[in-house]
Amino acid sequence: MLTKGATPALQDIVYRSTFEYDPVTDALTFWFSGARYESGRYRWGAAVERHRRTAVFEVTGDVVDPRSLPAAPAPLDDWP
User: Exposed e or buried b for every residue in 1-39, given b needs 16+ CB within 10 A?
Assistant: First the structure.
């Protein structure tokens, strides 16, 4: 659903996510947490996205090989 670097707040790490389905609107709301590395430390943040259910399960062919993504810029010693 979300690749690290897709949003500035989660530039370097996508850590956890959760979602909620609303049957009235047939939409899913996703919450993501993660971090970006700034001034020698991780700055943790969150992002929210809302999508129609049909869009979430639509086949797009867009696949990102996780091995092609750069590693985190520093060790993960500073967890929230």
Answer: eeebeebeebbbbbbeeeeeeeeeeebbebebbbbbeee
Instruction: Give the separation between CA 51 and CA 66, rounded to whole angstroms.
Output: 23
Rounded Cα distance, 33 and 47, in Å? 6
Q: Given the structure tokens 């943040």, which residue do they identify?
A: 45
- Enter the pTM of the model: 0.68
Taking 80 as the threshold, does the pLDDT of residue 80 lie above it? no
For residue 4, give the nearest of 36, 44, 42 by alpha carbon. Answer: 36
Domain ranges for the chain, please list them.
8-57
Statement: residue 66 has pLDDT above 90:
no
Mean pLDDT of 31-55: 91
